[in-house]
Amino acid sequence: MAEDLSAEIGPDRSLLLVDDDEAFVKRLAKAMEKRGFLPETAESVAAGKAIAQSRPPAYAVVDLRLEDGNGLDVVEALRERRPDCRIVVLTGYGAIATAVAAVKIGATDYLSKPADANEVTNALLSRGELLPEPPENPMSADRVRWEHIQRVYEMCDRNVSETARRLNMHRRTLQRILAKRSPK
């Protein structure tokens, strides 16, 4: 059974969960409610931004890739309306470049899927005192290549044509690489 963390959460327990995976977002909402949060869900960038404008929450968990756009747009909307909002970006397409972009525009933390409710809660409530443990295994060569491509892609404001030009690769090849999950 999950513990109630209401005292640690504070008086404003509002939590926005933005993810287009309906089953995942419902499970996470139930789990976060058991921990003392008051979750509200959205399954698109548009819905997330609408909630951010009308009733900005104290906490938010935002998926990076949504069907109607990029979750970073929701992060920006939340930062504009509520600068003290603690935001965790959650994604199945984890890359250092996107993590850096998320933190630069105001995310508190960044987690790769699959992340459980305990990891999400710890990320939302952490105040950054502890440094993360160094990884046991270094990145593979494929992963390093993937990270470099993602970094250039973010530097080019997610413009595929410009990224392909800078990386000296065919645009279609780059599109195929970007559509795949990151290597281990």
Automatic annotation (TrEMBL):
<dbReference type="InterPro" id="IPR047772">
    <property type="entry name" value="ActR_PrrA_rreg"/>
</dbReference>
<feature type="domain" description="Response regulatory">
    <location>
        <begin position="14"/>
        <end position="128"/>
    </location>
</feature>
<dbReference type="InterPro" id="IPR050595">
    <property type="entry name" value="Bact_response_regulator"/>
</dbReference>
<keyword id="KW-0902">Two-component regulatory system</keyword>
<keyword id="KW-0805">Transcription regulation</keyword>
<dbReference type="Pfam" id="PF00072">
    <property type="entry name" value="Response_reg"/>
</dbReference>
<comment type="function">
    <text>Member of the two-component regulatory system RegB/RegA. Involved in transactivating anaerobic expression of the photosynthetic apparatus. It is a transcriptional regulator that is responsible for activating expression of the puf, puh, and puc operons in response to a decrease in oxygen tension.</text>
</comment>
<feature type="modified residue" description="4-aspartylphosphate">
    <location>
        <position position="63"/>
    </location>
</feature>
<keyword id="KW-0238">DNA-binding</keyword>
<dbReference type="GO" id="GO:0000160">
    <property type="term" value="P:phosphorelay signal transduction system"/>
</dbReference>
<protein>
    <recommendedName>
        <fullName>Photosynthetic apparatus regulatory protein RegA</fullName>
    </recommendedName>
</protein>
<dbReference type="InterPro" id="IPR011006">
    <property type="entry name" value="CheY-like_superfamily"/>
</dbReference>
<dbReference type="GO" id="GO:0003677">
    <property type="term" value="F:DNA binding"/>
</dbReference>
<keyword id="KW-0804">Transcription</keyword>
<keyword id="KW-0010">Activator</keyword>
<dbReference type="InterPro" id="IPR001789">
    <property type="entry name" value="Sig_transdc_resp-reg_receiver"/>
</dbReference>
<keyword id="KW-0597">Phosphoprotein</keyword>
